[in-house]
Amino acid sequence: MIELLLVFALAIGLGWPLGHYLARVMRGDPTPLDRVFGPIERGVYRLLGIDARRGMSWKGYASAFLLSNLALGVVVWILFMTQAWLPLNPDGAPNMSWDLALHTMVSFLTNTNQQHYSGQAQLSYLSQMVGIAGLQVITPMMGLAIVVATLRGLFGGREQMAGGTAATPTDEARGERDVGNYWVDVLRATLRFFLPLALLWSVLLASQGVPATLAEGPTYTPLDQSVEMRSQHVPLGPVAPMVAVKQLGTNGGGWYGPNSAVPLENPTPLSNLLETLAIILIPVAITFMVGPLTGRRKLTALVFGCMALMSVVSTGAALWSEAYSPTAQDAALMEGKETRFGASNSALWATLTTQTSNGSVDSMHDSLAPLTGAVTITNMLVNAVWGGVGCGLQQFLVYLLLAAFLSGLMTGRTPELFGRKIEAGEVRLLALLILLQPLIVIGFTALTVALPAFTGNSNPGFHGISQVLYEYASAFANNGSGFEGLGDGTPWWNLTCVVALFFGRYAALIVPLWIAGLMAKKRVAPTSSGTLDVETPTFALTLVSVVVILTILQFMPALVLGPVGEHLALTTAGAAIP
Amino acid sequence: MNSSTHLGALRRHSTAGIDRAALKAALVDSLRKLSPLHAVRNPVIAIVLLGTVLSALITVASGKNPGFGLAVTLILLVTVLFANFAEALAEARGRGQAASLRAARRDLVARKLDDAGGETRVAAATLKRGDRVIVSEGELIPADGEIIRGVATINEAAVTGESAPVLREAGTDRSGVIGGTKVLSDEILVEVSAEPGGSFLDRMIALVEGANRQKTPNEIALTMLLAAMTLTFLIVVATLPFLAGFVGASLDPLLLIALLVCLIPTTIGGLLPAIGIAGMNRALAANVLAKSGKAVEIAGDVDVLLLDKTGTITHGDRQATAFHPLAGIDRDALRDAALLASVADPTPEGKSIVRLARDLGSRVTEPEHAHFVQFSAQTRMSGVDLDDGRTIRKGAGDAIERHVTALGATLTPELAARVQQIARSGATPLVVADGNCVLGVVELSDVVKHGVQERFARLREMGVRTVMITGDNPLTAAAIAAEAGVDDYIAEAKPEDKLARIRQEQAGGRLVAMVGDGTNDAPALAQADVGLAMNSGTQAAKEAGNMVDLDSDPAKLLAVVEVGKQQLITRGALTTFSLANDVSKYFAILPALFAAAIPSMAALDVMHLSSPANAVLAALIFNAVIIPALIPLALAGVRFKPAGAVSLLRRNMLVYGVGGVLLPFAGIKLIDLLLVVLGA
User: Fold this and answer.
1) Do B575 and A452 touch (CB under 8 A)?
2) Which residue of A406, A413, B25, B514 has the fewest C-beta atoms within 10 A of its own C-beta?
3) Cβ of A435 and B598 within 8 Å?
4) Burial of B5 (0-12, 13-18, 19+ CB in 10 A)
5) How many helices (H) and strands (E) in chain A?
6) Is B508 helix (H, G, I), strand (E, B) or coil?
7) Strand pairing category for B547-549 and B288-290
8) Using CA atoms, how far apart are residues B30 and A100, in angstroms rounded to an integer?
9) Which of A410, A539, A568 sits opposite B600 (nearest CB)?
10) Does the pLDDT of residue A576 top 50, yes or no?
11) What is the full DSSP assignment across B231-290?
12) Which residues are CB-neighbours of B480 under 8 A, at least 6 positions away?
């Protein structure tokens, strides 16, 4: 409980200044740090041939995002498939198969870090450092850039936000609005915000004993001769920086297969606190960025308030379920839990890692009590409790638009958000997003369980459904954690997850940006007493209700046949698990 | 004139409720709407219809448990019929109103004037735009048109329900006449302004009938959202057998159909067309003919309302309310002089001066051989030249000033002070002079209409700002604006100022409503987002606006704004309600669905329903009966009280959101209890 309060207090206490600093970075305000970062940035712009002063329309911004992803994707895919022949491979990791390499590449490119491989055995140091960690650094900042561009669009474009000049007819005639420069946004956020923070965290983690080396791992002889092995090779590497990056950037893909449940990634209670805090630090900081970035301080209150409310309820439910629910004391469920930190800290990590789309784990989620499992799946289905870096706020904006649409009708005005009308064009895109999630998550789940040959499922019954549902929910939410127990390194899993990852990342990021691009061009209606003020408790509760009802309506049957069914089966006396 | 054809009577009908004829017509129509061709226009209901057919086929094919299958099929069919009935009822009411409108203009004979000046009697239906007809006392006007010669009093009760006659006059802003109304006095020459079948009424009739009703922008947006939810539920239900199969449960297809129908938003889907039609009907019930549903909807979004002062905020005819003699002048002298100057003045102002003077005890007899000077635009004075050589004049301050200085007088500062003082109080000063001697000032007050202040306050609560437009000087305008409680005013306004103001407001992102009647209002009416033309106004004004007020009551816009808002609120509230309902339906049907294969699922049956079959039937029955139960709400609109947006949202979320989650739990349990009692 103390750890819980400490984590939230620290996240808010550190998130507030970080968010304000981030807003300055994204606005491009001059700072004293320009002297350090300015020359580096200018060098990169010259190298890439970028005109940093040029603004982009939403289409240009989205194209730049896709282009950069395509280029990175191809390079990393090839890297994974050829790593055995490349340098920095002291432990002799072999080349990856094409489908596993594709899944791994897409998984990291989409800031998901779903791992169908075991890092320490199947990746070379080069792949880990360049392919994995490189993407772990840059992809969260890409998500952040997209959501910043979306916010700019929702407020009518960069020039509207900066100068606050009123819209003139000539502005409208000019067509698309400037939502920022993608390359500048990504570079500034990476260089001025993420890397310094990651450096700090890796030093702190290294101080706790997390390995940070490029040398080959040592080999030990087990003392206990009853173990059927002569010697054990302990893979090491630059673990601390990577753990820092994976925790901070809602990445989640660890150096080691079992992630932060391995003592080498998470050796002490202090490291556990640091890593737990790092999961939510940037998502929380982003909520504090919203106010100063948009010039509407109260907007931060709305975003933070809604997210904190959902987070508290979800965390509370998980902790309750782990401590008091009828299934919590089941001895079988302690297998896979990190006993060094205890069940409640495991539950805290589990719920936070799914509230943000982090996906790192310090316990195996299929060992959680069934209802805790339901909480973690629900967190990922909502995907905006805090959400991933950038994409969480992006999904929140989708809910905000939906709630504003319904609320607008209920207050007797054509729905609008920030003075811009939400009309058929925008609702069509929102409808697409509403449909996409159940189509992919439930669709693939049903397909997979209908074809048991493909599933590689280790469990029958409700638990099996939970595993599959979790895997696809995690993929679509770009979370990356797994329920474990799935033989998920097969082409079926790799390819279907690639589809889920792809749409969960690109549709979920670009469609809201598209909506913002449409809204940016609209006439702004000044506020009157007939305008619905979204920064009010009434609207916040409406928004949360929309999230809850939508999630229940879409996923209740699947959850009932998964974790809820398992819970009921375990609690109903005498009933065996079917 | 048969009084049952009065729109006024109709208005009473439509507010009183649903009449029997409309009910009967709607019942027949709801069967006709079962045709697949009609059903596909409403995807939600089309799926229910498809489900009905499937469940009938399954019942026949499987042969097991036919009673339950039959019950499910029938309830589904009834659900479709209920939805059809809602739409049909709204349409039937619209048709009823339209029929009354048509009756007003049947079998009319027109006296058409040909080029030679001769008269021929032709059927009114054959009249074309540009034809000229003569209408005399006691005759019905055969078609919409404009008076090009003459003045007449007209009874428009057939259209407006208002029995007090109105004055229509050629060459004024009140030259428009409506087909089917009756000339009470005099003879007028009317130029027909509409092609046969193309008059306002004809177009309105078509709209009211819903024949060519087009979906409004907000309706289209909402339909998309509902379609997305419907498809979502299709995915959810279609995948369920696979998931259930994995845990060894095989699901009854009938129950799956039941689950799907319960989940898709049938309530709002079934009521959506009715809400749209009812919005138009409610506007009509307020005697406003909207040219499209979109116009009504936009009215709900209006931010600024531009109003002419005269006739809207004030009665328009200024009345003499006091005499203010200058220092040293006898009050009675002023009074009598004013009376003499006004006895021959036919304007309401002139008559009111005579009335006031008599009330104050003037006994001056009307002079017999006096020469009366009529008001002219050049002199801007009127008055009288008496036999004894006195020349009495009354007029605006500056006109009299010019008049008396020309006669060699010098003016005292007192006069200017008086004039200023009266003008500042919102009244119009009229200066009276006898020869070159200024006697004093008559105060003419423009009386603010009773109740306008409350109306503007209501509008302000809804977030609508009011701007008064007047030709008065700034002082007068400010005083009247303060008294009437408008938010802003434009004084000394020229016609083009209206247009400029509308453009200025629109450039600031506001939606503007404008009320007007004159030809020079037409550009402003066309530019405004909502242009409400007075039916008494000119044809140009009516063509330019997107709504016509049959009562020619400019304050009517308030009613239109409320109708527009109500329509949106009704849609939003019922959508919320419809989706919120689904939570309880899950709790009713999911346990029933898995009851056989997975006994532990019984724990989800929080309502403790009597049996799985009854649970499904209860949920389906609730789903069906909620549609007719909400028809009155859909037709009358959700109760609207002007309030801030946040308190509106809070109220509607509590009633339709929280209520929408809770009500069906109680409803389904109740129906289940009834089923036990009935079927045991």
Assistant:
1) no
2) B25
3) no
4) buried
5) 24, 4
6) coil
7) antiparallel
8) 58
9) A568
10) no
11) HHHHHHHHHHHHHHHHTT----HHHHHHHHHHHS-HHHHHHHHHHHHHHHHHHHHTTEEE
12) B309, B313, B314, B426, B446, B448, B468, B470, B472, B489
| Closest residue on chain B to A535 (Cα) | B646
Length of chain B: 680
For chain A, the 3-state helix, strand and coil shares in percent, each to the nearest 5, are 65, 0, 30
Ranges of H-type helices in B493-610: 495-507, 522-527, 539-544, 557-594
Q: In this complex, is the C-beta atom of A86 within 8 Å of any C-beta atom belonging to chain B?
A: no
Helices B266-285 & B557-594 angle (0-180, nearest 10): 160
B308 noted as active-site residue: yes
Instruction: Write down the ipTM of this complex.
Output: 0.87
Give the span between the Cα atoms of B448 and B483, in whole angstroms: 7
Q: Kindly report the pTM of this predicted structure.
A: 0.82
Tokens 């987070």 -> residue: A311
Catalytic residue among B308, B517, B529, B672: B308
Q: Round to whole Å and give the CA distance between A404 and B660.
A: 19
For residue A419, the chain B residues in CB contact (below 8 A) are 509
CB distance A206 to A240 below 8 Å: yes
Q: What percent of chain B has pLDDT over 70?
A: 89
Q: What is the pLDDT of residues B28-64, one digit of tens each?
A: 888 888 888 777 778 888 888 999 999 889 888 887 7
Specify whether the CB–CB gap between B449 and B315 falls below 8 A: yes
Residue B270: pLDDT above 60? yes
Query: For residue B527, which amino acid is it?
Result: Q
Higher per-residue pLDDT: A513 or B347: A513
Domain ranges of chain A: 2-219+234-350, 389-576
The residue count of chain A comes to 578
Residue of A nearest to B298 (CA): A414
Q: Look at residue A226 in the predicted model and tell me its pLDDT.
A: 67
